[in-house]
């Protein structure tokens, strides 16, 4: 396997419940290194641009309202097979379908407030990282 970079968002439901450290420990214990991290409150325009691929879906308005409802933690993660490793430790999008020991099974409130977002491919990871981070913010 090769070293990869992936993108993650610790979502508002998790930041409100003070779960940032616990979620980070899941990521680090899985062998991922956090090489960039910042807490922000997404503006509606940023959220709409970031989630533009979902704009025709019925949940889009609710997603935008939710993701802008409180602070989020944006992250760049590095590791062997980082995209898939992050997807595995996050668990299924629907927490009721997630495996025990995954972030979503252990912390999610529901399918929307599922505590974490992660890139689904290397192409998405590159796009999402570049959307939120400059090269100078990624420290190895």
From TrEMBL:
Assigned keywords, A-Z: ATP-binding, Cytoplasm, Kinase, Magnesium, Metal-binding, Nucleotide metabolism, Nucleotide-binding, Phosphoprotein, Transferase
Active site, renumbered: 117
Domain Nucleoside diphosphate kinase-like: 3-140
Key word Transferase present: yes
InterPro entries in the record: NDK-like_dom (IPR034907), NDK-like_dom_sf (IPR036850), Nucleoside_diP_kinase (IPR001564), Nucleoside_diP_kinase_AS (IPR023005)
GO MF, any single term: kinase activity
SUPFAM superfamilies with a match to the protein in the record: Nucleoside diphosphate kinase, NDK (SSF54919)
Domain of life: Bacteria
Role played: Major role in the synthesis of nucleoside triphosphates other than ATP. The ATP gamma phosphate is transferred to the NDP beta phosphate via a ping-pong mechanism, using a phosphorylated active-site intermediate.
Assembly mode: Homotetramer.
Name listed for the protein in its UniProt record: Nucleoside diphosphate kinase
Organism per entry: Candidatus Megaera venefica
Organism ancestry: Bacteria, Pseudomonadati, Pseudomonadota, Alphaproteobacteria, Rickettsiales
Gene: ndk
């Amino acid at each position: 396997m090769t070293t990869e970079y992936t993108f993650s968002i610790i979502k508002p439901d998790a930041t409100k419940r003070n779960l940032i450290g616990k979620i980070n420990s899941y990521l680090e214990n899985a062998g991922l290194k956090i090489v960039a991290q910042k807490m922000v409150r997404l503006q509606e325009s940023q959220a709409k641009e970031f989630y533009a691929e979902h704009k025709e879906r019925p949940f889009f308005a609710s997603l935008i309202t939710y993701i802008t409802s409180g602070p989020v933690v944006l992250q760049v993660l590095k590791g062997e097979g980082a995209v898939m490793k992050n997807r595995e430790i996050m668990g299924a999008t629907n927490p009721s379908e997630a495996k025990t020991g995954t972030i979503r099974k252990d912390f999610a409130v529901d399918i929307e407030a599922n505590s974490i977002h992660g890139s689904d491919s290397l192409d998405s990871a590159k796009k999402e990282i570049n959307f939120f981070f400059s090269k100078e913010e990624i420290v190895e």
